Amino acid sequence: MPETIVWNKKLLVVSLILGVLAVAMFYLYISAQEKKLRGDTVEILQWSRSLSVGDEISAADTTVARVNSATTVTKGVLRKASKDEFVGKHVSRNVSRGDKVYYKDILERSSGTPADDITPGMRGLSLRVDPNYTPGNILRVGGRIDILGRVSPRGKPAKTYTLVRNLRVLAVGGHGQKPEETIGSKRRRGYNPGIRVYRSVTVEVSPELAEQMVDLLSRVQGKIWLTVRNPSDAPKRKSETGINSEVLSVLSQAPAKKDNRP
User: Fold this and answer.
1) Where are the alpha helices (DSSP H) in the chain?
2) What is the Cα 183 distance to its own chain's centre?
3) 102-to-88, 91, 106, 107, 248 alpha-carbon distances in Å
4) Which one, 36, 47, 56, 200, has least CB within 10 Å?
5) Which pLDDT belongs to residue 183?
6) Alpha carbons 242 and 230: distance in angstroms, whole number
7) pLDDT band, residue 35 (cuts 50/70/90)
8) Which is higher by pLDDT, 71 or 235?
9) Is the pTM of this model over 0.90?
């Protein structure tokens, strides 16, 4: 009898081990089938807010999302590791919150001419400014400005309006993108990143806006003024960019007779 009891205990232990192995193999099989159906997941970047073409990218503008690589198109999409790689660059097209971040969304600075900094489809428009009333060296390439001037919309008495808002600066006093961006970390001799006195500022505009601005500025009474935006002061609505709707009626009026050159 004792020998029979020992033998039964051995059978019980073997049965338990086989049972555990069977359960483990079952769960491994189920897991493999689910993974096969679900596919591998990857961590990609999505836009956390909507941006307009030419806007500068900050670290807070993208967020990480986990997606199914088998059912989601991830070709050309930036991954989690690239989250901070493009901070400070600009978007090359309008993007919406929740969209995947593609490489083609990013405007990379090349080693060519300063004009390479112009967003594809956009134009650089030069404005004459009075050197005695410019913002000085706080205005830099890549900054954002508003344009002010005195006009008389709908025949009303002339007063100062914000004419055009949120324009990206391409050049200050004829100096375009920073030389170190095109020749590595070495600066060209005589380069001054903060010019205090200048007579022109070049801004990035669409071809349509360029035509409107030429007509509008020819109707300004006197000089134009520039105000500098904080880099984080991004417009929340599209209506907060471009020509102020309050002064659009000025475009149908005769150009100002007074020469507004500085």
Assistant:
1) 2-38, 207-217
2) 24
3) 16, 10, 7, 11, 36
4) 36
5) 35
6) 17
7) low
8) 235
9) no
